[in-house]
Amino acid sequence: DTAVSQTPKYLVTQMGNDKSIKCEQNLGHDTMYWYKQDSKKFLKIMFSYNNKELIINETVPNRFSPKSPDKAHLNLHINSLELGDSAVYFCASSQDDSYNSPLHFGNGTRLTVT
Amino acid sequence: QQQVKQSPQSLIVQKGGISIINCAYENTAFDYFPWYQQFPGKGPALLIAIRPDVSEKKEGRFTISFNKSAKQFSLHIMDSQPGDSATYFCAGSNQAGTALIFGKGTTLSVSS
Q: Which residues of B touch A39 (CB under 8 A)?
């Protein structure tokens, strides 16, 4: 009974392709996030949505486009994939967008661009 | 201004020993400092958190020590066990800020 689930777990693709990662949470949380973890394990926020509205959009190339069809889902679409996009992408949720609301992470999607 | 600096990058401790991980922050507006634990192949999970109005918080074998004047905080794992082997991230955030800012992580190995 996974709280935050991401699909796929692994994604191997070639440069220039377009791919999507899906995320769903069953915790009833209002806020969802995408984080990127690089090969050195550094975690960096990419986007955050609160009740389907974008509230955080860090300096991310516009090839990355998040979409939240409802507050339980936050998908990430990536256009024209580049080698540097290879990383583990984590979806997370929190009860609300307050600064001290604990994050609940999914198990990540390992994206490899060849 | 937004950084959280974490050290050491990696740590090897014998079973039963004390593991200590240190973090320093720059943004004096930060007022929430969580620690997250990540096992291989899993997402990070909240371990323990502290607000700057207290100098120490203990939960089981895990203790956060906080020094507001030095802008530093640390995680102490007492009686370290092989099952504690994981990557630990400190983080900071503030009310006016956006998302958590994470340190670069410490990979802890507890040898049996």
A: none
Strand, helix or coil at A83? helix
Q: Which of A40, A55, A107 is closest, CB to CB, to B42?
A: A107
Give me the long-range contacts of A44-50 (CB less than 8 A, separation at least 24).
A44/B102, A45/B98, A45/B99, A45/B100, A46/A76, A46/A89, A47/A74, A47/A76, A48/A97, A48/B98, A48/B99, A49/A74, A50/A96, A50/A97
> Residue A16 is encoded by which pair of tokens?
């220039």
* A36-93 tens-digit pLDDT: 999 999 999 999 998 888 888 888 899 999 999 999 999 999 999 999 999 999 999 9
Contacts of B30 in chain A (CB under 8 A): none
